[in-house]
Amino acid sequence: MRFVALAFAVLVLGGCAAQPMYNWGGYESMLYKGYKDPAKMEEMKVGLEKHIAAMDKTGQKIAPGLLAELGTLYLQSGSSDKAVAMYTRERDTWPESKGLMDAMIKNLERRKQASAEVAQ
């Protein structure tokens, strides 16, 4: 009888386990691989793009920081316009990041303006 009661309690309480709030899409393993072998950063960028597209398609909220991470990967590959777009989206999705994202966007806009002035 004790065994049955214990088994029942385990099943009931096991069903109450907290589910993760966000789907990170293998971010931790991609990040580890990217730091271990910088050549895999392109693979990480593609993985994040696919994950974000899947989240958009299903209407799920994207985990905090993933849009900014993708923006930084775009910036590192020379696509500052895409980086600004991702930073803007991160800011709009996660208002807590507004200060940092605004600073990043402003810095990139200054850089772009300075490059345009030098080119003239």
Write the layout of secondary structure elements.
Elements: H1 2-14, H2 27-36, H3 41-58, H4 66-76, H5 80-93, H6 98-119
Helix pairs in contact: 2-3, 3-4, 4-5, 5-6
Number of separate helices: 6
Q: What is the molecular shape?
A: elongated
* Gyration radius, rounded: 21 Å
H/E series: HHHHHH
Count of individual beta strands: 0
Number of domains: 1
Give the % helix: over 70%
Runs in which pLDDT lies below 50 for 5 or more consecutive residues are: none
State the name of the first-level CATH class: Mainly Alpha
Q: Kindly report the average pLDDT value.
A: 90
- How does the major sheet shape up? none
CATH architecture: Alpha Horseshoe
> How many angstroms does the end-to-end distance come to?
86 Å
Percent range for β-strand residues: under 5%
Predict the CATH topology.
Serine Threonine Protein Phosphatase 5, Tetratricopeptide repeat
Structural class: mainly alpha
List keywords for this structure.
120 residues, mainly alpha, Serine Threonine Protein Phosphatase 5, Tetratricopeptide repeat, 6 helices, 73% helix, 0% strand, elongated
What would you note in describing this structure?
This protein is mainly alpha-helical and 120 residues long. It has one domain: Serine Threonine Protein Phosphatase 5, Tetratricopeptide repeat, CATH 1.25.40. Helix content is 73%, strand content 0%. It has helices spanning 2-14, 27-36, 41-58, 66-76, 80-93, 98-119. Helix 2 (27-36) packs antiparallel against helix 3 and helix 3 crosses helix 4. The longest helix has 22 residues, at 98-119. It is elongated and about 85 Å long.
